[in-house]
Amino acid sequence: MADSESKDGADVRRRVRVALRRHGPTAPVWRRRTAIFGGAATVGLIAVAFAWAADRASEMFGGLVKLHWWLPLLLTPIGFVVIAWLTNRLAPAARGSGIPQIIAAKQAPEAAMAGLVSGRTALLKAVLTAGALLCGASVGREGPTVQVGATIMAYAHKWLRVPVTASVLVAGAAAGVAAAFNTPLAGVAFAIEELAAAYEQRMTLLVMSAVLIAGMIAQGVAGDYIYFGLVGQTLPLRAVLLIAPVAGILGGLSGGVFSRLMLWLARGGASLISGGRPLLLAGGCGVIVAVLGVVTHLTWGTGYSAARAIIEGSDAPLWFGPAKFLATLATAAAGLPGGIFAPSLATGAGVGNVVHAIFPDQPTGAVVLLGMVAYFTGVVRAPLTSVIIMSETTASRGLMLPLLATALIAEGTASLVCRERLYHGLAAGFLRPGKDREAAPDPEAR
């Protein structure tokens, strides 16, 4: 009898241990959930801190320009050379936007933690992007936030002994978009269109959870704000039938040209121009950006202020769009860390300004938004993401259908100019020969 009771007690203890291993606080399922929630919350906080630092850097540069209008002619070229040198020497994987890096990192997520999504790369990415804004470069913080967000999510999983998969990187990147723009829906759409080749059920849950948590944290810290301000204007159907094709074709063509030039630069064009001397190219690009900024007073930094002013109806020169286009392209050619999201939206506002000059009787803000979504779609070739970003950053839900129609026209037009999607084309430059090109199995997407 005693032996029987002893065996029963041992059996109960064994079952309890098995249950704790499977469902207790150290079980894989709880470690995975903790990694998702903790990583997403950290992404939200870091995104807000990065946004604050980037804004302060832009303001400091603006203050210097007001004191000494000629200073950028020295500061910007020298800054470009120094940042390009630091990037090439300390963190080559930090150059450019950050989104191509994550597309490349999905092929071998664990291996990518030694380079594309390493802590060193993410830290230098944020610091050097702020430095680029401090010297007037035409860059944005959204692309870098994507790379930093994916890195944070990867480390959260690694520290909790959860496999780092492609789904983890996609979730961190999408959380970065949501927190950077305060646009949760755009984060999900971005993950679908740009980052996820196979968007299945378990990946959906991971991305949605990360986006929701990061968005809530960022909104709680930074407040419930609308990125470009409220746009309540609408367009009648007859006007949409006229304006959408014009904006879509103009924005799609110019965005496609930008993508084609970016890919050419990445695939040998930059070396051809510089003769294999990247620092010389960086200095020359800095001179171009400096001269454009000194002459126009509008092309510095992200272009956020200029874009918002155009949306609100302020008079802006018709050459703003081409000038911002050139400043952004020159900054990218220099190889500086920094994104093209915000500068592309600003260039799109310039496109919208031109379209409004053709249709001056229509509401300024509404027409400008069509130009913005057209150009942005032409560059990134993600019409759903473009429409949702514009809708969420301006609360312009009454323009959803005109925006979508314009984006689809721009997508078709841009594909005639540049068949390859920009971020996926740039990602090839971050892939190493061999195993990195082989897609790693992703248990989260099964």
What do these coordinates show?
It is globular, with a radius of gyration of 23 Å. By secondary structure, the protein is mostly helical. The chain starts with a helix and ends in a 19-residue tail after the last helix. The longest helix has 40 residues, at 28-67. Residues 434-446 have low confidence and may be disordered. It contains 19 helices and no strands.
How would you summarize the topology of this molecule?
Layout: H1 2-23, H2 28-67, H3 72-90, H4 99-105, H5 109-112, H6 119-134, H7 142-159, H8 166-181, H9 184-195, H10 201-222, H11 237-274, H12 278-296, H13 304-311, H14 320-333, H15 341-358, H16 364-380, H17 383-394, H18 400-417, H19 422-427
Helix pairs in contact: 2-6, 2-7, 2-8, 2-10, 3-6, 3-12, 6-7, 7-8, 8-9, 8-10, 9-10, 9-17, 11-12, 11-14, 11-15, 11-16, 11-18, 12-14, 13-15, 14-15, 15-16, 16-17, 16-18, 17-18
Query: Residue share in helices?
Result: over 70%
Report the sheet with the most strands, covering strand number, pairing sense and barrel closure.
none
- The tally of strands reads 0
Residue windows where pLDDT falls under 50 for at least 5 positions? 434-446
Could you give the order of the helices and strands?
A: HHHHHHHHHHHHHHHHHHH
What's the quick description here?
This protein has 446 residues and is mostly helical. The chain is built from 19 helices and no strands.
